[in-house]
Amino acid sequence: MSDAARQVDRPGVDRSPAARSQPERPLDPKRRRRILEAGMALFSGLPYAAVHMDAVAAAAGVAKPTLYRYFPTKEALFIAGLAWTLAELRDAVGAIPERDAGARLRRAVGLVLERVSALSPALTAIEGRGAEFGERSRRVLREGFDGLRGALAEILRAGVAAGELSVPDVDLAVLMLLGGIRMAVHGTGRRPPAASAVADFFLHGLSADAQPDGAPR
Q1: Distances in Å between the alpha carbon of 133 and those of 104, 136, 142?
Q2: Which residues contact 3 (CB under 8 A, 6 or more apart)?
Q3: What residues are paired with 216 via a beta bridge?
Q4: What interhelical angle do 120-127 and 29-45 show, nearest 10?
Q5: CA geometry: angle at 120 spanning 70 and 153, to 5°?
Q6: pLDDT the model gives residue 16
């Protein structure tokens, strides 16, 4: 039985007319965040089909009826968690403290690679789905990566303005960087590369004038 079906007849939930007419208590943002953190930790470590709402409730330290108040189905939890994860990642990239553009880009690539790698099994599971859930997930993914593109573009533009980087087309560069990361972590079947290797390749490309670690010859 799916999580969507389970929520229709959950034990311990009073569905009488009197109960339905009572206003529900406001949802607690801190509890919602705790549920999202627990859910995305499970989605990051297990195949999508292996994550069950019982386990999410236990990991978040909430009762199952409470969990369903926040997220009525596993699909709703995953979509909200995906949006939350990508928004958190965008904010983390934008808050990188390093001033040097190369150092900022290396840190940003490391963050994106880590988070996208962790979600790779779940992303692979949803990208081929044609139902409404699959489309909603892909839309959230597109919107989340739009935010990441903006944060990475700011790093490149700051580097260009400081004379530290030469990037003829910032938007194209960001698309290539994110596309390369996504392919590297779940489109090739290989182990995800080290963040430093991805950053070095982006910063120095195929130039024969640089060592693999980026140091000039």
Answers
A1: 35, 5, 14
A2: 52, 53, 73, 74, 75
A3: 210
A4: 80
A5: 90
A6: 44
Give the largest CA-CA distance in the chain: 78
How many residues are present in the chain?
217
What count of Cα atoms within 13 Å lies in the side-chain half-sphere of residue 25? Answer: 6
Strand, coil or helix: 50: helix
Mean pLDDT calculated for residue range 148-169: 92
pTM, full prediction:
0.73
In this structure, are residues 119 and 85 in contact, taking their beta carbons and an 8 Å threshold?
Answer: yes
Retrieve residue 47's tokens. 């195949």
Which residue matches tokens 């007849």? 9
Q: Vertex 130, ends 128 and 134: CA angle to 5°?
A: 75
- The CA distance from 10 to 195, in Å, is 45
Residues 6+ apart with CB under 8 A from 59: 38, 39, 41, 42
Both tokens of residue 156?
């490149």
Please check the confidence at residue 79 and state whether its pLDDT lies above 80: yes
